[in-house]
């Protein structure tokens, strides 16, 4: 007799080693755990899942590769995004899906996600041998656990939670190399929403094993698959306790659509993702490759009826294997997740109609199941007969318990609402505290900078003040010197021409040259210096005029002396009149007079008796004495005038 079994590869699952992670999580406070759940969901619950490896390997034999589901004798089961999100406590709308296949996360982003410095995180990086890839980059389990333990002792919860979450991602959610967290898991951790990547890795790992007919280990999140399977298996005592001692393949082969727990009320209100972009179904990108899954085969698990055979166009399959280069397909998948299509709201009723059930049975008959049908069915629970009075009593108690249960459920929902509000308020308070702390730190740094600037301004003001005092003192000094020169000039003006020539001019030549000061660079000093230079130029012109007049006077005096020494003649010689500006007599002095020779007895001034010449005043030019204060950097003019009297 020909076998009715379908050939399937021998598959195994590997339980993750999570004892050290449990130890770290048990050291957390209740508030730290709540904050962990707010940031990373319920992934810590996966550490405490009891894994039945035989149940999972048996389930893998029922995988239907073309349809991306598990096909049993009269029903189908398919893991969905919505179910995985419920188990992990994630919201599909909080973060986008993982689309980082083939991309290496920057060290700066890794450090930011871990709330640590880039230098410290970079020091952990190492390479490890990978049988599939050759070499994998990432962090070893020991290094991360050591860092987590140090943060736990310091109760530095923010980075501790991040490091612990990364350990769960690398060792439980996306296992690859043993005791090693590679860049693929780190990329999914940074993305923030692992649901789509987890579902992709599950379907991809199953499909690759079936396609190559290869035995081996399923690389997927084993605790998550166990939780999903348990949520749909019968919850009746005869199945859970297994009194007949049946093996898992016998128990699963005996299951019918009436035995399955199809729908959880926790999914009420959840929107169903139907397709993305131009794809007829949902394209998934994981840490190993890309593959599609078909939500239309899982409507019953999400509360909607399975009415008819699904349209083949909605079951179109594709797969992008690890190592294959197809940038166009990757771009198409990334764009598709920007345009998602959700199932319209309809009345919920998780039943299967005959047309759909008939289609499943025909497919089972064509493709066969992986095991032989069970000879004996599962033993039903024995029927117990009780008296009517006892039944009514139990019914009354049952109604009381149901009422109490309903009240407890209402109270539980209310407390959950209060808890969510408290968690939300706590998170907002933490965010505000961090923002205020950052603002205070920034304000403190600004105040320190302002204090340093004020100190520099004080020092600059002191220097400017000293310079101003020095300039004021220099100004006073030169003003006093200027006044002294003015007084001296007045005295010189009151003296005669001889004192002026002998004393005043040499003094002008010997005036000290003041050193230039920066005070002269001001506009007021420049105006004053320009005026003094103008007066100095006028003085030089007057001195030049004085020289010419003095030469003329000397010539006239020589002519007068020559006339006096000449012998007398009957006609008295006439001396030309000397036109000159007379020097006014100074106070307490008389004009100088020259008496003609031959008149020793004296006569009055300007007497000219009998044609004899009389004495006249010696003409000298009137000179205005101005002693200018030289400008900074301008040398005093050197005036040397030879005078002959």
From TrEMBL:
<feature type="coiled-coil region">
    <location>
        <begin position="522"/>
        <end position="556"/>
    </location>
</feature>
<feature type="domain" description="DUF7745">
    <location>
        <begin position="21"/>
        <end position="365"/>
    </location>
</feature>
<protein>
    <recommendedName>
        <fullName>DUF7745 domain-containing protein</fullName>
    </recommendedName>
</protein>
<dbReference type="Pfam" id="PF24924">
    <property type="entry name" value="DUF7745"/>
</dbReference>
<dbReference type="InterPro" id="IPR056647">
    <property type="entry name" value="DUF7745"/>
</dbReference>
<keyword id="KW-0175">Coiled coil</keyword>
């Amino acid at each position: 007799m020909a076998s009715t079994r379908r050939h399937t590869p021998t598959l195994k699952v590997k339980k993750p080693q999570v004892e050290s992670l449990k130890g770290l999580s048990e050291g957390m406070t209740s508030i730290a755990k709540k904050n962990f759940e707010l940031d990373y969901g319920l992934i810590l619950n996966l550490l405490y899942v009891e894994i039945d490896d035989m149940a999972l390997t048996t389930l893998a034999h029922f995988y239907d590769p073309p349809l991306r589901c598990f096909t049993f004798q009269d029903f189908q089961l398919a893991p969905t995004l919505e179910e995985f999100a419920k188990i992990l406590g994630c919201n599909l709308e909080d973060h986008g899906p993982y689309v980082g296949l083939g991309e290496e996360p920057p060290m700066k982003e890794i450090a930011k996600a871990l709330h640590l410095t880039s230098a410290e995180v970079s020091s952990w990086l190492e390479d490890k041998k990978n049988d599939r890839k050759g070499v994998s980059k990432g962090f070893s389990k020991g290094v991360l656990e050591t860092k987590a333990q140090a943060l736990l002792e310091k109760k530095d919860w923010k980075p501790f939670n991040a490091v612990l979450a990364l350990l769960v991602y690398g060792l439980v959610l996306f296992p690859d190399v043993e005791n090693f967290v590679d860049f693929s898991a780190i990329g999914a951790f940074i993305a923030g929403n692992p649901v789509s990547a987890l579902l992709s890795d599950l379907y991809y790992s199953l499909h690759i094993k079936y396609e190559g007919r290869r035995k081996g280990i399923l690389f997927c999140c084993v605790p998550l698959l166990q939780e999903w399977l348990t949520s749909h298996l019968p919850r009746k005592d005869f199945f859970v306790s297994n009194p007949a001692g049946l093996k898992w393949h016998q128990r699963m082969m005996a299951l019918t659509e009436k035995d399955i727990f199809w729908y959880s009320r926790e999914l009420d209100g959840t929107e169903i993702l139907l397709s993305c972009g131009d794809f007829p179904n949902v394209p998934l990108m994981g840490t190993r490759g890309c593959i599609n899954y078909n939500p239309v085969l899982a409507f019953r698990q999400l509360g909607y009826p399975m009415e008819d055979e699904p349209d083949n166009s909605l079951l179109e399959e594709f797969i992008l294997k690890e190592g294959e280069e197809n940038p166009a397909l990757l771009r198409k998948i990334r764009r598709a997740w920007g345009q998602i299509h959700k199932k319209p709201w309809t009345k919920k009723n998780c039943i299967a109609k005959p047309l759909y059930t008939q289609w499943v049975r025909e497919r089972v008959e064509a493709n066969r199941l992986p095991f032989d049908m069970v000879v004996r069915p599962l033993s039903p629970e024995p029927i117990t007969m009780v008296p009517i009075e006892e039944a009514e009593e139990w019914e009354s108690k049952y109604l009381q318990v149901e009422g109490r249960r309903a009240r407890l459920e209402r109270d539980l929902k209310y407390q959950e609402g209060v808890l969510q509000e408290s968690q939300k308020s706590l998170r907002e308070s933490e965010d505000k505290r961090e923002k205020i702390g950052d603002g205070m730190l920034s304000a403190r740094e600004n105040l320190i900078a302002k204090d340093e600037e004020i100190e520099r301004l004080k020092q600059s003001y002191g220097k400017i003040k000293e310079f101003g005092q020095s300039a004021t003192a220099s100004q006073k000094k030169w003003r006093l010197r200027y006044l002294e020169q003015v007084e001296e000039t007045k005295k010189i003006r009151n003296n005669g021409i001889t004192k002026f020539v002998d004393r005043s001019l040499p003094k002008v030549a010997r005036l000290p040259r003041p050193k230039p000061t920066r005070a002269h660079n001001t506009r007021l000093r420049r105006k004053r210096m320009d005026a003094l230079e103008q007066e100095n130029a006028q003085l030089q012109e007057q001195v030049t005029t004085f020289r010419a007049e003095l030469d003329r006077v000397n010539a006239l005096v020589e002519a007068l002396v020559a006339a006096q020494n000449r012998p007398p003649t009957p006609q008295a010689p006439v001396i030309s009149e000397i036109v000159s500006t007379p020097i006014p007599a100074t106070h307490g002095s008389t004009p100088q007079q020259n008496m003609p020779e031959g008149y020793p007895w004296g006569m009055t001034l300007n007497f000219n008796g009998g044609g004899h010449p009389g004495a006249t005043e010696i003409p000298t030019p009137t000179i205005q004495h101005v002693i200018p204060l030289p400008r900074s950097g301008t040398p005093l003019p050197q005036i040397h005038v030879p005078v002959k009297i």
